[in-house]
Amino acid sequence: MGWFENSLMARKGVAGGAAGAKHAITIADQGAFHYVYGPYADPVIEVEPGAVVSVETHDAFEGKITKESDVPSQILNFPFLNPQTGPIFVKGAEKGDALAVRILSIRPRGPQPVGTTCLIPEFGGLVGTGNTAMLNAPLPEKVKKIRVDEQGVYWSDTLTLPYEPFIGTIGTSPEIEAISSLQPDYYGGNMDLPDVGPGAIIYLPVNKAGGYLYLGDCHAIQGDGELCGVALEMPATVELQVDLIKGHGNAWPQLETEEAMMFIGSARPLEDASRIAYRELVRWVAAETGQSEADAYMLLTMCGKVRLGNMVDPKYSVGASIAKKYLK
Amino acid sequence: MGWFENSLMARKGVAGGAAGAKHAITIADQGAFHYVYGPYADPVIEVEPGAVVSVETHDAFEGKITKESDVPSQILNFPFLNPQTGPIFVKGAEKGDALAVRILSIRPRGPQPVGTTCLIPEFGGLVGTGNTAMLNAPLPEKVKKIRVDEQGVYWSDTLTLPYEPFIGTIGTSPEIEAISSLQPDYYGGNMDLPDVGPGAIIYLPVNKAGGYLYLGDCHAIQGDGELCGVALEMPATVELQVDLIKGHGNAWPQLETEEAMMFIGSARPLEDASRIAYRELVRWVAAETGQSEADAYMLLTMCGKVRLGNMVDPKYSVGASIAKKYLK
Amino acid sequence: MGWFENSLMARKGVAGGAAGAKHAITIADQGAFHYVYGPYADPVIEVEPGAVVSVETHDAFEGKITKESDVPSQILNFPFLNPQTGPIFVKGAEKGDALAVRILSIRPRGPQPVGTTCLIPEFGGLVGTGNTAMLNAPLPEKVKKIRVDEQGVYWSDTLTLPYEPFIGTIGTSPEIEAISSLQPDYYGGNMDLPDVGPGAIIYLPVNKAGGYLYLGDCHAIQGDGELCGVALEMPATVELQVDLIKGHGNAWPQLETEEAMMFIGSARPLEDASRIAYRELVRWVAAETGQSEADAYMLLTMCGKVRLGNMVDPKYSVGASIAKKYLK
Amino acid sequence: MGWFENSLMARKGVAGGAAGAKHAITIADQGAFHYVYGPYADPVIEVEPGAVVSVETHDAFEGKITKESDVPSQILNFPFLNPQTGPIFVKGAEKGDALAVRILSIRPRGPQPVGTTCLIPEFGGLVGTGNTAMLNAPLPEKVKKIRVDEQGVYWSDTLTLPYEPFIGTIGTSPEIEAISSLQPDYYGGNMDLPDVGPGAIIYLPVNKAGGYLYLGDCHAIQGDGELCGVALEMPATVELQVDLIKGHGNAWPQLETEEAMMFIGSARPLEDASRIAYRELVRWVAAETGQSEADAYMLLTMCGKVRLGNMVDPKYSVGASIAKKYLK
Q1: Which residues cross the membrane (chains A, B, C, D) (predicted)?
Q2: Which CATH number fits domain A3-249: 1.20.120.530, 3.30.930.10, 2.60.120.580, 3.90.870.10?
Q3: Chain C: residue nearest D275 by CA?
Q4: Contact C126 A134 (CB under 8 A)
Q5: A57 closest CA partner among A209, A195, A220, A186
Q6: C150-183, pLDDT tens digit by residue?
């Protein structure tokens, strides 16, 4: 029996971790894409807990950057960026529950070179931006189109990077807000955290009936921080298994893998993102192991792990985790 | 002739600064209040540029904290906080324009003690919060009800503070986002900047047709930073004169008084809010005076002024200004 | 009787606010200048509480930028920047006391144009720096030499700014650290706060015997934030009256004027500087007025004032103050 | 041939990576410990490049917390914290060079339980501090003494954590500053980065003749961020091989292991620490591989790794690295 049978999803999910009906959302099914995480859109599909859904996603540029001579600032039209598929309505989901989303696979979709990365003016970790407002001239724009398949990312003739795909943007709807899909927050969104890849389960807080699951922005590979503002962006086909945990009550996204349990915080400055993630983890470890909060705090000063998602979005994202083997 | 005749509003407004038709929005007219700044609500009223509008606002607690023994955390129901009157649709307003909103008067409304301040758990400048997540226990909750009239704020038997009213939350709608009225941003919102008071004109970027002007959250007096998380909150009647400047193109709110021109930035950390405000001001001074950006930058290192709005909201707000007499 | 007779300095100082012996430190007396605030230097002079000291200071560039064609990065030699006069040993000063330093006058010193401002690569509020590390190219360097006298600052043929001098850098020595004079901190240092001008009294924590008072870096005028990284720098002659308050115990610099009492915090990010200043002020107001800390916190949410010193130094500085008339 | 023969140390060191004379510094040899990184102390030993030095270090509490009933705030006497062994004078080292320090071994030293962790008031990642100044009451103080040997860290009867030792504080002297050993900065210091362990080589900028190498503060194990403010602190015996690279010119610490090359930045807020580390790495990758800075920036957006050292010291520390196999 694998670890999945002992996951929160399998133990607490309404469907008990069992795979249910199969669904698909193609680009054509989706029709209009969404640029906000919000409750004002109509669900593209309605599913029962346990549903297995195959989802076609656009890349963050909606496929508009097609060649290396393209100039991003002439093509991209803020705020119509980072198009999202969904929302998926999960039956029975109510405020206070969590959607459990198991990522089964992520495959690149479309003609080669399928991957795109670029430098966009006033965007990125080592340049002035709209918030960290500077008078310096922006860096020159630049586009790289890169061949990607499930065996590798072909950066250059001499260097092949591994294919390490994940979902850059995934989350539920806020209750009354509709927030740009460029931003991560308490409901998920544009966290750009490489851990959100095949094999992982993400537990997303439900803020409104049906949960309203959105996703998009798959990455073929990404370093910690998504340094230049974008990763290796690609259109993809994502296969998900969606379950529902009643009353799970997590205030921020939680992520489970075979080895570890993680919480994900998003905020500025970056220490606040880390504080959010670690506070959730301290409290979860204390509850899970029966230790006091003070002891859990001290245990994590020994063995907590931090993963930087992005340091470039409107909020920065950090995952704080503990190895499951230390939960005793 | 007063300074108003030389204001941007009078010189560039569609109505040329002339007062037009009178309108009123009472609490009853408004009916349901709004808790987000967004385009998904229906306008409560539609006006021509020049309109003079009398608006009744709730306090930030929607009047639910009525006595000093109330416990805020038992009464307040996130995200249904900071109720906003509006939206007001301004005819002819299109993306890229600015609404010019002249504040004519702000009067407290309702039975005494009309003012409320309080300590709310995990909210305020000197306590851990949802973002600056701490393990420390919150401060005890506390409510103070304070008598306010247009002559003063009666803090105690021995101390009367001046009545220095302003609008804590005012702004236009984002194009596709709907953002909590607790947050300030590029469209205005919960800036909590004491300069937004009678006599001032605020220029708010238009992001969607009609502008969609919202307001609420009047304060009888507030210190810089809104230190404990709320000011002296009061229900109010606000009188506004609303004009429209075509193609004004400001990316962030701009504020004009007899003496000074200001830009308002909102971001975290606080230095980013200051950078936004100052960059807008540098560029405006350069354009206005014909100096180079470098010279405007150096001039402001001599005589720029900074006003801290809030250091407690989801984003912090800062106004950077220059005295008009130095614009030569 | 003026306000000074009721100041902390006059009421609590060892010399009771009385002016004592006169001393002078000229550039020649000083000999070698200091670039750190530390205990490892020998005092240039030893004085009794009450001493009136006339001090000649260099400008922050040690007078090396003499003409507008100078290139700062070729002239300035880090870490030998911001030369300080002192240290002045105050007899009787011990750890836990405070030096009370009353600023009597600040006059420009030397040939015209006596004022210098400039753009230095990777330095300033609206550019990438050594800490806020960017890949953008720096702005071009630029020097402006400006005529200054006690009647005004002659920015251009058409614009004269007021002469509003203050001491940019003043403080005591840390106990065992020696910290660059470019940095402000708990002992004072490079706060660049315009309130530190003639008429004000600054109370500086004593960390080692004798206090070791250093000063330098006078400014003819400066905007809030010292936006481009430097103010209008000038060599000056400063007249100070130095007293000693035994056991005053302030952890951070405190400043008193006729109207207000202020505390000064220095940290990054800017909200932390504000938090430090405001927490000191909350506690002082509570102690001074007999109110609870919670009440003082709420009073300051009504009437606290914030002054931004610098947002460009290794730490940022903020003063938080209350009008004395509200202390009842 | 192992990777060490191809390290920067072996290829560029004055001693060419060869082990030279053996030296030892015992607690008795050291005598007085140091609490600042500065040039004002006398070297405890003078060595040639290539020297192998065995160093006894105190724990961060100088061994004063001996039992779980101890109360840290009654024992610890700021600023006399985090005692450092050294300085070691390396012959031939001049400003602009780098010391190459290879960590050969770290062994716990002294009677069991040799490890100490604790909660100290106003210190730690999830509590208010002297900088992030709060009004909340501090958490209760708490001490845990933990048995440690080279096989494990005996957290509880049921949980043994791995022994993963490293040097919490190591660095050279600034040129004229003397900075608390609690702080990390451009010269190293209290980085608390778990990568600084056996097998790694750290390249520390030389700011003054002889370099003045200090070290202390060994940790038996630590999670990312050193969450509660301290790790598992222990007295240790550290064996180092010290070489010298002339003209290496790194502005910030650089670290090499078999697999990766890292730069370490320290600043607040945390994004600035990341920016420093990543900018150094971008420039180094560009120089090393012949790619443009823009290409190196894009490569690191694919495969850069970030390790959080501490988020609790006066500055926070972050290491940014690239796998050596991607350097082609």
Answers
A1: none
A2: 2.60.120.580
A3: C133
A4: yes
A5: A220
A6: 999 999 999 999 999 999 999 999 999 999 999 9
